[in-house]
Structure formats: C-alpha cells, structure tokens
Amino acid sequence: MTRQNTQNKILDAAERLFAERGFADTSLRLITSEADVNLASVNYHFGSKKALIKAVLARYLEQFMPKLSEELQKLLQAEQAPTLHQVFDSFVEPMLALNNFRSNGTNIFMQLLGRGYSDSQGHLRWFMTTQYGEVLQQITLAVKRANPALSASEFFWRMHFTLGTVVFTLASNEALRDIARVDFEEDIDVEGLVRRLVPFLAAGVGAPILPAFAMKEAL
Amino acid sequence: MTRQNTQNKILDAAERLFAERGFADTSLRLITSEADVNLASVNYHFGSKKALIKAVLARYLEQFMPKLSEELQKLLQAEQAPTLHQVFDSFVEPMLALNNFRSNGTNIFMQLLGRGYSDSQGHLRWFMTTQYGEVLQQITLAVKRANPALSASEFFWRMHFTLGTVVFTLASNEALRDIARVDFEEDIDVEGLVRRLVPFLAAGVGAPILPAFAMKEAL
DNA sequence: ACAAAATTCAAACAGGTGTTTCAAATCTAT
DNA sequence: ATAGATTTGAAACACCTGTTTGAATTTTGT
C-alpha cells in the first residue's frame, strides 16, 4: 500500500509543477522534495523523467479522451451535418468535467496540454498518434462534414492554426487571466475562457478561402 | 574591425541555432563552436546569454517594426475604417521583406518570434512593451476600428487567441511544412503560410459574440 | 516469527550549463 | 617602434541535471 502512496505523491506533485513551470524547468529534485519522497523513487517507480511525464499526461487523457469521443460520436451519428460551432463545442464539456476528477483539474490539464505541445515536442504528439488515433479521426471527420468546402491542404493548415490557438491560450491561461483581472477587472474563469475560444475557432476554420489559393488547388 | 567580425559571427550563428532549437536548448558552447570563436567571447561582447538573445531579436525587430508601423499608419489615416482582413494583411509585407535583409530572414524571424514567446517567457514581451509600445497601440486602434463591436474584454481575448495562432504556427512552421510536403505533396512556401493565416485570423476576430457573453458585458 | 521480496535512503556519478579568471596575443594610437 | 588598450584563449569555477548504486529498512507471504 506504500507503493501507491509514493507513486501518487509523485504524480500529484509532478502534475502541479509541470503545469506551473513546464517539463524542462521542473527538476526531479524539486518534484521529490515537494512530494516528500526520496529522489531515487521516481526512477524506481517510473523508470525515467520522460516516463513520468507520460504518466502524468496519461492520467488526464484517460479521463478526457473517452468523453470527447462520445460527444463527437453523437454529432457524427446525427443525420444532418454538424456546424463548426457544434464540433468545437463538443470539447467543452469533457474539458470542464476534469474539475470533478481532480480539484482545479481543468486548469491543470489545460496547462499540461499547452506545455506538452510547445515544450520538448513529442510527448503529447506520441499519445495522439499512437493511443488516440481514432479520436483524431473522429475530429477530422466532424470538421470535414461541418465544412466540406475545405480542400485537404486548407483543412490541414486550419486545423493547425486551431491547435496553435488552443495550445497557446491554454498554456498561458493563468497569466492571461491575471492580466485581464487587473486591466479591466474582469475575473474570468476557465469555463469562460474555453467557451470564448469556440466562436473564434469556428469562424476561423469556416472562413472563406482566398481566391488565390482556391485557384492553386484547381490546377 | 575584428570586434564587429566576432560579434557578427556570434549573432549569425546564434540566430540560426536559436531558430532551430530554441533559446534554452542552445548552449553557448554550441554557438561559439559553430561561430568559430572562443567561448568567453559571448560574455565579453554581450555580457550574458540573456543579452545575446535580446541582441538577436533586436536586429530583426529594428527591421520589421518600422515597416509594420508604416503600413498600419496608412490604414489609420484613411477616411473609412479598415477591414480586419486589411489590418492583418499589413503584417505580411514587412514580414516578407525580411528575406531581403537576410537570406531566409522571414523564416528565421518567424521561428525566433515563436520561440521568443513560448520559451522562457519575457524576452519578446519586454521588447513589445518597452521598445515598441506605440506600434502595439497602432495595432489596437486599427483592430478596434475594423471591429468596433468588440468590448474591451472580448478584444483582449481575441487578440491573444490571434497571438497564439501566429506564435504557434510560426514556431513550428518548418515542421508543419514538412508534414504538408509528404502528406499531400504540397510544397508551401513561407509566403503561402503567412497569407493563409490572414483570413483565418480576420474571421476569428470578427466572429459574432456569444449572447451569453454579450449579456455579461451589459451588466 | 521468519525468510524473501519490495521499497526507501544517502551518496556518488557522469555530464552538462553559464560565467569568471588571467595570461597571451593582437590591434591602435602616439 | 613602443606603450597602452582591446580582444582572444585555455582553463577552471560553481552549480545544476537525470541516473545509478548498494546498504538499510519496511512490507509481504508463509
């Protein structure tokens, strides 16, 4: 029973520190001292720092991904094509549900997501392609149904623009909310932030295609 | 005359390596060995690694910012309000002009911009607020004229969504273009990428405001 | 209660970082 | 040409990193 205790103490401290400071800037010594365990125990229980990072991400993705998949399935099973707004909206509830899984969970997951992509590239990408490829395909399918006018290439770029908006916003959400709080006394919560993203992204992905590029495609 | 030579050798090697690997992952030993100068010379000529990073960024910003400011001024002086598309379009030419300043300059600057924001937060932000505050205000003014419906808070958030899209896309533009090249044999150049961002951002910033948030604002 | 397995612990390892030092070399003026 | 300032060079400094080691401890199954 001590095993679980130590492992979880490490995971809890690590996820908090990773979210606050990023993966690279969080040393094992800091994690283990905050978790009140021995330095060697992270290598003993997880093998390496990389494996610890994956374990931290996995704990959240296991909660988030099935719920997201379910939401997308609802849209895909409906007879009429979804709107882009609906597609992006289906991310919101699974995101907010993380607050039930762990206190402040939505916020931590958002920052982990941001870090996971921008820090040492690869960790998050690894999960997406190897573990959750089907969900990725559901997303693709839903967006394509919502906006069939997009060519393969335009779709690719706009999805990455979207990813960038999300990753950046999530990674720096606490800093941004701090600024907003002092600049115009608006105390926005995580939910408000997530919900504000939806119309922005839906409009961006649904934007008309420049004639110049449309022509290029036709060649 | 040897001074300039060494300093520039360092700057040239540093900007390339910073763009490729980020600031944190580029050691002074790597920079000085590629520049073929002594390790100590970067501390001698620039004082510290932080100061070197600032010097690298400054060289590009000095080229870019006045041109951007000029483009924005054109829009602001016109009688009728600009469109969002026009506002974001005014970034494109100054961006592309960097290829005349230095070979592959646009691409390097884009990656530096991305790194400068997501890496060790602060460097780029320092320039923006202390050195180029007026340009920042021009941007603000132009966007507000193009979309007066935005409240201060909605404006703030959408500008940061925009920043996120740009920073992320620029930082990973080489990787993304590589994927695009193999996935659907489309060899997009930097210009094509920058131009594709414009309609996405214009649509996002111009998206209708959710009734829920519009109500909140009215309180 | 005891033997065996699992876990914790303090310490050291091997390698990396930015920065400093101070003598040697080079350039710059008189 | 020579004295003085500037620049280069090799080495060391102080500190931090993830990982490994091997003995001490605790937990587990019988």
UniProtKB/TrEMBL annotation, chains A, B:
<dbReference type="InterPro" id="IPR001647">
    <property type="entry name" value="HTH_TetR"/>
</dbReference>
<dbReference type="InterPro" id="IPR036271">
    <property type="entry name" value="Tet_transcr_reg_TetR-rel_C_sf"/>
</dbReference>
<feature type="domain" description="HTH tetR-type">
    <location>
        <begin position="4"/>
        <end position="64"/>
    </location>
</feature>
<protein>
    <submittedName>
        <fullName>TetR family transcriptional regulator</fullName>
    </submittedName>
</protein>
<dbReference type="InterPro" id="IPR050109">
    <property type="entry name" value="HTH-type_TetR-like_transc_reg"/>
</dbReference>
<feature type="DNA-binding region" description="H-T-H motif">
    <location>
        <begin position="27"/>
        <end position="46"/>
    </location>
</feature>
<dbReference type="InterPro" id="IPR041586">
    <property type="entry name" value="PsrA_TetR_C"/>
</dbReference>
<dbReference type="InterPro" id="IPR009057">
    <property type="entry name" value="Homeodomain-like_sf"/>
</dbReference>
<dbReference type="Pfam" id="PF00440">
    <property type="entry name" value="TetR_N"/>
</dbReference>
<dbReference type="InterPro" id="IPR023772">
    <property type="entry name" value="DNA-bd_HTH_TetR-type_CS"/>
</dbReference>
<dbReference type="Pfam" id="PF17939">
    <property type="entry name" value="TetR_C_30"/>
</dbReference>
<keyword id="KW-0238">DNA-binding</keyword>
